[in-house]
C-alpha cells in the first residue's frame, strides 16, 4: 500500500512536471514580454569589462556564469564595477552580502553607527560579539572573508551635503539603504548631479518598496525622487523602524531586489525599475509595480557643498524644463552659516553644560526627540520633549526656536543626527546632538538609570 507521504510526493512531482511546464516555466523557456504587454527595455551595460577572471573566480561563479543573462562577459563587468551602499543596516546588510557574493569588484559601505542589540534581528552580518563595534568595520571583515576576490571599502561617516559629491563620484552606482528622507535627499541629489544611477529602497513594518532613479539614463526619460515625492527636500519621516518596527525578512526581500537591480544595470540585461515603484506587501504576500512618470517642468533646487566648503544653490538641468539650461557650476556661491555649537557633544560635555546652565553660565535647549514610550523608560533631567515627527510643528518652534542653541538626543544617536542635519538645512544655526544618545548618557553619567 502506498503511504500518504509517497502519494503526496507523487502529486507534487506530477504538478511540477506538468503544470509548471504547461504554464511556460522551464530552464530553457523565458518570457520575453511582461504580463501587461510591455516590451522589456534593457539598457546597454553600464560597465566595461575587465580583461579576464582568475581560475578561482571561474570556479566560484560557475552557477552565475551559466546564466545566459550574465555569462563570462557579464561576470567580467561585475568585477570591474564599483558600487556604494549607503547604510549597513537592515537593507544594507543583505545588499552587501548579495553584491559581494556576486563578485562586484569594489563595494563601498558607508555608515557611522555602531552595532546595537536591537539590530540583530534583521542586520544579518552581525552577532552579539559585535555589540558596540562600528558596523562598517565589522561588516567589511565578514564580507572580505566571504569573498576575498572583492575589494570592500568601509567608510565610517554620515553622508552630508559637504561630502556627498566626493563620496559618490568614486563609484558607478549608489544603493541607498538609509532610513530617513533628509539623508536620501542628499544622496539622491548628489547622484543626480553626477549622473549616477541611484537605487532606492525602504522597509517598514511588513511592507517594502524599491525603484531606480537616474538623471542621465542612456536612453529614455530621467526619473527622479521628486517624481514620486515632490516635497522630498522638506519631508520628515513620520515613522521609522525604531518606532514602528520592521520584519527582518522583509528587509532581506527588498535588499535582494536592490542588489538585483544593480547587477542588471552593470551587466545590461532585463528591465530596470526606472519609472516603476515595486511594492511588496508581506502580509498579503504580494508584489506589484506602480508606474510613475517624470515631469520635465518640475524645478528642484539642490544645495550641496563643493570641495572648498562653499554652499552652491544649484538648479539641475535635468530636473527642469529643457529650455532652462542653468547648471550647478553657474550658480552663485553663498556662505554657509556657522553653527555656534559643536555638531556633536559627548555625555560628559553635556553633563558639564547642564551644570553651567544651572548656574546661569550657559543657555541652550536640550530636546528629547524619541517616542513617548521611550521617554517613559528613561530620560535626561532638564530636557524638553518633542517627538521627531513633530519637530517642524508650530508648537515645537516655541520649544526650540531657530535662533536658539539646541542639543538633540535620542536612544543612540541615529535619529538625533538625522534631525540635526535636517534642522540645520532649514534654518537652525546652532544645533548639536548627543553622541551615543541616552544609552551612552546612562552608561557614562547615570548608570543607575534603566537602559533599553
TrEMBL record:
Keywords annotated in UniProt: Membrane, Nucleotidyltransferase, Transferase, Transmembrane, Transmembrane helix
GO cellular component: cytosol
Transmembrane segments: 83-110
GO molecular function terms listed in the Swiss-Prot or TrEMBL record: nucleotidyltransferase activity; sulfotransferase activity; thiosulfate-cyanide sulfurtransferase activity; ubiquitin-like modifier activating enzyme activity
Record carries keyword Endoplasmic reticulum: no
InterPro entries for this protein: Rhodanese-like_dom, Rhodanese-like_dom_sf, ThiF/MoeB/HesA, ThiF_NAD_FAD-bd, Ubiquitin-activating_enz
SUPFAM superfamilies: Activating enzymes of the ubiquitin-like proteins (SSF69572), Rhodanese/Cell cycle control phosphatase (SSF52821)
Source taxon at top rank: Bacteria
Pfam families: Rhodanese, ThiF
Domain annotation Rhodanese: ranges: 360-450
Protein name: Adenylyltransferase/sulfurtransferase MoeZ
Record organism: Naasia lichenicola
Amino acid at each position: 500500500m502506498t503511504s500518504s507521504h509517497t502519494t503526496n510526493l507523487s502529486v507534487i512531482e506530477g504538478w511540477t512536471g506538468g503544470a509548471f511546464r504547461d504554464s511556460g516555466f522551464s530552464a530553457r523557456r523565458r518570457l520575453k514580454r511582461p504580463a501587461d504587454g510591455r516590451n522589456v527595455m534593457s539598457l546597454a551595460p553600464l560597465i566595461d569589462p575587465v580583461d579576464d577572471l582568475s581560475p578561482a573566480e571561474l570556479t566560484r561563479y560557475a552557477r552565475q556564469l551559466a546564466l545566459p543573462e550574465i555569462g563570462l562577459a557579464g561576470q567580467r563587468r561585475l568585477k570591474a564595477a564599483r558600487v556604494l551602499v549607503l547604510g549597513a543596516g537592515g537593507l544594507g546588510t543583505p545588499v552587501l552580502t548579495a553584491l559581494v557574493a556576486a563578485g562586484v569588484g569594489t563595494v563601498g559601505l558607508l555608515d557611522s553607527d555602531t552595532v546595537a542589540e536591537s539590530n540583530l534581528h534583521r542586520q544579518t552580518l552581525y552577532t552579539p560579539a559585535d555589540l558596540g563595534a562600528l558596523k562598517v568595520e565589522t561588516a567589511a571583515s565578514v564580507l572580505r572573508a566571504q569573498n576575498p576576490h572583492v575589494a570592500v571599502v568601509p567608510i565610517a561617516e554620515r553622508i552630508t551635503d559637504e561630502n556627498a559629491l566626493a563620496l559618490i563620484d568614486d563609484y558607478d552606482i549608489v544603493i541607498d539603504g538609509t532610513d530617513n528622507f533628509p539623508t536620501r535627499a542628499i544622496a539622491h541629489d548628489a547622484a543626480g548631479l553626477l549622473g549616477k544611477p541611484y537605487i532606492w529602497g525602504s522597509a517598514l513594518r511588513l511592507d517594502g518598496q524599491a525603484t531606480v532613479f537616474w538623471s542621465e539614463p542612456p536612453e529614455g526619460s530621467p526619473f527622479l525622487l521628486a517624481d514620486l515625492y515632490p516635497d522630498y527636500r522638506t519631508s520628515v519621516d513620520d515613522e521609522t523602524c525604531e518606532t514602528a518596527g520592521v520584519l527582518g525578512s522583509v528587509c532581506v526581500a527588498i535588499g535582494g531586489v536592490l542588489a538585483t537591480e544593480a547587477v542588471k544595470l552593470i551587466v545590461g540585461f532585463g528591465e530596470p525599475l526606472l519609472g516603476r515603484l515595486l511594492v511588496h506587501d508581506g502580509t498579503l504576500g504580494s508584489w506589484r509595480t506602480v508606474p510613475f512618470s517624470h515631469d520635465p517642468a518640475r524645478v528642484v533646487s539642490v544645495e550641496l557643498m563643493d570641495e572648498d566648503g562653499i554652499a552652491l544653490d544649484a538648479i539641475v538641468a535635468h530636473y527642469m524644463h529643457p529650455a532652462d539650461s542653468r547648471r550647478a557650476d553657474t550658480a552663485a556661491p553663498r556662505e554657509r552659516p556657522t553653527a555656534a555649537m559643536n555638531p556633536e557633544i559627548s555625555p560628559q560635555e553635556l553633563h558639564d553644560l547642564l551644570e553651567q546652565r544651572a548656574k546661569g553660565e550657559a543657555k541652550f535647549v536640550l530636546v528629547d526627540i524619541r517616542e513617548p514610550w521611550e521617554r517613559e523608560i528613561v530620560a535626561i533631567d532638564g530636557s524638553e520633549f518633542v517627538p521627531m515627527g513633530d519637530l517642524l510643528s508650530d508648537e515645537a518652534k516655541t520649544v526650540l526656536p531657530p535662533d536658539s542653541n539646541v542639543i538633540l538626543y535620542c536612544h543612540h544617536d541615529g535619529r538625533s543626527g538625522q534631525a540635526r542635519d535636517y534642522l540645520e538645512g532649514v534654518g537652525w544655526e546652532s544645533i548639536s546632538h548627543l553622541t551615543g544618545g541616552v544609552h551612552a548618557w546612562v552608561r557614562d553619567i547615570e548608570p543607575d538609570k534603566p537602559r533599553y
